[in-house]
Structures are given as C-alpha cells and as structure tokens.
Amino acid sequence: MGLLAQLTEDMKTAMKAKDKETLSVVRMVKSALSNEQINLGHDLTPEDEMTVLSREMKQRVEEMTSYQDAGRDDLAAGIQTQIDVLKKYMPEQLSEDEVEAIVKETIAQVGATSKADMGKVMGALMPKVKGKADGKMVSQKVQTLL
C-alpha cells in the first residue's frame, strides 16, 4: 500500500475515532505530499515521499525544541504528539553504531583522508541514510572519523 493510500485509511480511522490530533497531522502530511507533487509536476517516488516526511519531522522537532527552550512545556507536549504520529510513517531509524559503520564504509569508498574531504563523504553518504538517520548525527560522525 502506498503512502497516500495509507494516509487516507488512517484519516478515515481517525475520523471514526474522533481523534482530532491524529486527523490533523495526517491531513497536514497529505497536504504537504500533494503540494510537493504539484511543485515537481509528477507522481512522487518513495524517495520524494521520504523527503517530505523528513522535512515535516524536522520542522516539528525544531518547533518542539524552541518551545522547550522558552519554557512552554504545554505547547511542546502537543508537538510531541504530532511527532509520534509522524514516526508511524517514517522508516526505522538507524542506531549510532549502524550509522558509524556506514560512515566508515563510505569514507573507505571515496578514499577520504582529511576533513577537507567531508563534502565528498557527505555527498556519497546522505543518499544511503536519508530518512533513516538525523543529518546532524551523521555529520558529527563524519567529522569525528575524518
């Protein structure tokens, strides 16, 4: 079942259960996917869908962090609910050890020897971990291993 079909089913389920928060998040994701499809001018590939989901997740995480920094735990809790719903559609996240193994393998593949080669490594690495690992963590691993 494709992501849009899954979202439609989940939207129906949330409507029947009168789960306003889940319904709101599902509608937001469907809208973001539809907008991306219009912008690209073709049907979305699974990679395009993952890009949209990752972007939405990143926005929520940044929003929650800013609320927590401002001491607004009430608002942060609402954002956490949205993040929990979004996680259902994201692929399984890689552990730090798995990311480190992929980084080491990629460094060996591109023959990187110093921090000057970081761009080359990141360019080869990001397609492998897109949507499966946080970009900041990946970047930090590359910096430590170079």
TrEMBL record:
GO molecular function: carbon-nitrogen ligase activity, with glutamine as amido-N-donor
Signal peptide: none
Pfam families per record: YqeY
Transmembrane annotation, as ranges: none
Protein name: GatB/YqeY domain-containing protein
Organism: Weissella bombi
